[in-house]
Amino acid sequence: KQEVTQIPAALSVPEGENLVLNCSFTDSAIYNLQWFRQDPGKGLTSLLLIQSSQREQTSGRLNASLDKSSGRSTLYIAASQPGDSATYLCASGGNTPLVFGKGTRLSVIA
Amino acid sequence: DAGVIQSPRHEVTEMGQEVTLRCKPISGHNSLFWYRQTMMRGLELLIYFNNNVPIDDSGMPEDRFSAKMPNASFSTLKIQPSEPRDSAVYFCASRALDRVGEQYFGPGTRLTVT
């Protein structure tokens, strides 16, 4: 059974800092790895999806990488801004529904 | 497209009452998922449907929970009777069957059972 872990559970950084969020999964037989953002009281918004054949995906200041052999994915946020404050969840996709980590709650301090 | 629509957005009820949560998936999507999110357990899959047929309901916590999808544009999640430990945010998500992993989430229903 796939298990997804995110460390740290919470992270606080000053504005402008580059940061990395970590995601690990136990079963490397995944179709894809997806990163979501969740604002307080809101639903989940998809940020990036990496197919199993890919190593990384980029969108603006966000870059997500995938290393299936080590069972890890990272989300890199460049030049963080207070508006980036949210909870970030990763989820592994296979031929069964998404399996989510518990998320990393990010606070970017102005 | 309006995205996945859920109603109500907030529900406060007393223990023992019946609660019905509603979801309208994105038009053309033929998979629908119900999740529950709590601080302790994170986001948990309760049940999902493909082409209106329940595929896996192993995440449904107890017989008090039931879900239906009478047609491609509507699903309900019912809790009867409700208990305080059912308090959580319930999300509905949908996707096209051939788009593995690309789920779109609704805004959620925050349920409080007192």
Quick summary:
The complex is a heterodimer of chains A (110) and B (114). Chain A is mainly beta. Chain A has strands at residues 4-7, 10-14, 19-25, 32-38, 44-51, 56-59, 62-67, 72-77, 86-93, 99-100, 104-109.
Number of helices of chain B: 0
Structure summary, number of beta strands of chain B: 11
Measure the end-to-end span of chain B: 36 Å
Assembly state (oligomeric): heterodimer
State the helicity of chain A in percent bands.
under 10%
Global outline of chain A:
globular
Major pleated sheet of chain B: 7 strands, mixed
Beta-strand portion of chain B reads over 45%
* Number of DSSP helical runs of chain A: 0
Class of secondary structure makeup of chain B = mainly beta
Overall pLDDT level of chain A = 93
Based on Cα principal axes, name the global outline of chain B. Answer: globular
Poorly predicted segments of chain B:
none
How far apart are the termini of chain A?
41 Å
Helix-strand pattern of chain B: EEEEEEEEEEE
Q: Using CB atoms under 8 Å apart, which protein chain pair has the greatest interface?
A: A-B, 24 and 19 residues
Q: What is the alpha-carbon Rg of chain A in Å?
A: 13 Å
Radius of gyration of chain B: 13 Å
Helix content of chain B: under 10%
Query: Which strand-content bin applies to the residues of chain A?
Result: over 45%
The number of strands of chain A is 11
